[in-house]
Amino acid sequence: MLLGYTITQWLFGILSFLSIMFGLMVVFSRNPVNSVLYLVLTFFCIAGHYLLLNAQFLAVVHIVVYAGAIMVLFLFVIMLMDLNHDNEPQKTWLTKIIAGIAGGMLLCVLVGSLKGSEQLGISQYGSSQIGMVKNLGKVLFSEFLFPFEIASILLLAALVGSIMIGKKEIK
Amino acid sequence: MINGISINYYLLLSAVLFIIGAVGVMARRNSIIIFMCIELMLNAVNLLLVAFSTLHNDASGQVFVFFIMAVAAAEVAVGLAILSMIYRNVKTIDTDILSNLKN
After folding, report:
1. I need a surface site. Which of A8, A81, A114, A125 has the fewest CB within 10 A?
2. What ipTM, to 2 d.p.?
3. What is the residue-level pLDDT of chain A in tens, covering all 171 positions?
4. Is residue B14 part of a domain?
5. Inter-chain touch A117–B67, beta carbons under 8 Å
6. Would residue B46 count as lying in a domain?
């Protein structure tokens, strides 16, 4: 107990603050490479949140898939297109202000509509073990076996599609 | 309450992350940054799904997040292929210049 809060609550607060900060930096940094690096940090913070929620498997998969594969792909494409500059063209200030106002209003709507969920009184029963690899694997390979196989076909289709699109010329 | 943290805080955090992504999509011109902001919005939703799955002790939510990650990987591969193809033909990925579909 520290200042009336438990360690978990402190960790949640710090991780939330960091993920929001890095999320803002993704949007506000001028250089696309910096944006990618801040997004990687945001993903690490979200993986920390998964660990706090006792979802170890998802935390590991999140780091491997997002920080390991997807962000490297982004970085690769940015380097390929030679976008590593600080002076790319920006939208006008009017557009930016309108975007900010629209986002703020959307936030107000979301927070206002979710405010009543406090009265639901739902509480977690005991300690959750469903995020462990063993339990998740059992569910994935019994109840969700068909969607799992469909996902493999989807990945194959994406692979073939991206190769076809990315080819120099299609004869 | 999950480990002493109210679900409301997770709702708030996810909403804020989602809004940051949405504002990024509206306020930036670089297609790759817009793409990254979409990833951020996806992750905000994933976080909330995991939080509710832990709250209700139901593994389905986490399996769903797993599938969302697979679909996001496929989406990024195809989307970046399209972007690099556009760059090869038009030499830019600025959304204000790539507005041919408008007229």
Report:
1. A125
2. 0.91
3. 667 778 888 889 999 999 999 999 999 888 888 999 999 999 999 999 999 888 889 999 999 998 888 989 999 888 888 777 767 777 788 888 998 999 999 999 988 887 766 655 566 655 667 778 888 888 889 989 999 999 999 999 999 999 988 887 655
4. yes
5. no
6. yes
- Residues of chain B in contact with residue A136, where contact means CB-CB under 8 angstroms, are 59, 62-63, 66
Looking at the 3D structure of chain B, how many domains does it have?
Answer: 1
CA dist., res. B49 & res. B64, Å (int): 8
Which distant-in-sequence residues (6+ apart) come within 8 Å of A154 by Cβ?
A: B70, B71, B74
Residue B1 forms part of a structural domain: no
Q: How many CB pairs under 8 A join A and B?
A: 226
B2 occurs within a structural domain: no
Tokens 């990925």 — which residue?
B93
3-state SS assignment for residue B91 = coil
Q: Do B12 and A111 touch (CB under 8 A)?
A: yes
Element spanning A110, H or E: helix A93-114
Chain B residues with CB under 8 Å of A87 CB are none
